[in-house]
Amino acid sequence: MSNTEGFVGFLKSKGFELNYLNYQNVQYLLLKLRNLNILYFQYFLNIQLFNRITEKHPDSIRIWSDQWERNQPVIESRINNLLQLNTRIPARVCRLQKIDKLQSVQFLEENHLQGSTKAKSHFGLFLPQSHYRFLPQEMVPESETLLLAVMSFNQPRRFKKEDKTIVSHEMVRFATTKNLSIIGGLDKFLKHYEENYQPDELMTYIDADWSNGQNFIKLGFQIVGKTEPMGYKLDLKNKRVRFENEKDCIWNSGSWKLKKYYNEQK
Prior knowledge:
Blueprint (H helix, E strand, L loop, with lengths): L2 H11 L3 E7 L2 E8 L2 E6 L5 H10 L4 E4 H18 L4 E4 L4 E4 L2 H11 L9 E8 L16 E9 L3 E5 L2 E13 L3 E4 L1 H13 L3 E7 L6 H4 L4 E5 L4 E4 L5 E3 L7 E2 L3 E7 L5
Parallel strand pairs: 3-4, 5-11, 10-12
Antiparallel strand pairs: 1-2, 2-3, 6-7, 7-8, 8-10, 9-10, 12-17, 13-17, 14-15, 14-16
Helix pairs in contact: 1-3
């Protein structure tokens, strides 16, 4: 089965309607279910065509065939989350604690679409054995706790603004275990970090292929910018490598830059 057949088969099993589209000889797929639209690209294209196609479908999720081949379980979980099909666990029954770099990296490589990245501080959300009743039977471990989600932060940065020193923090990764949705998890992580590290501002970047940042905006963040789309080629191991021109390649949609201000700093 080809990558495209597997992707289409998965979404059709969820009730998505399939549309084969063509724009200036570029073929792509549009899959629709209620208010959820997903674009699927199989072929390299230039940035002008990518921008025109995505402008025609402004509220869509954008997925490329290489992502599906490399991270199918993560993509399936993210789509199931949007459809509210994942197992839902309330964050209030979970315990939040600091974890080491190795534990964070291993978790993110398995559960984040972009894997792990360099970070200074790592935190995990654990489900204690007393609440394993929330888990599907096949996910119940023999250990006394189960790591459900990870959030990591960069080293804080200090800069002068007028006559004040501003301490700026950045959240660089957030992921949950595949096939689980942690209700209130994002809020619990951020409140813990805010209370313990007292940032003047907290910044993060949101993948514009998947989100417009609304979950963060609901928690007090503001959109302050957006990065440009980035182009990639694939290496011999089918991993993405930055490609610094506008020729035919894989494109992402850039990232939304969001900030939350504290102590009346803006």
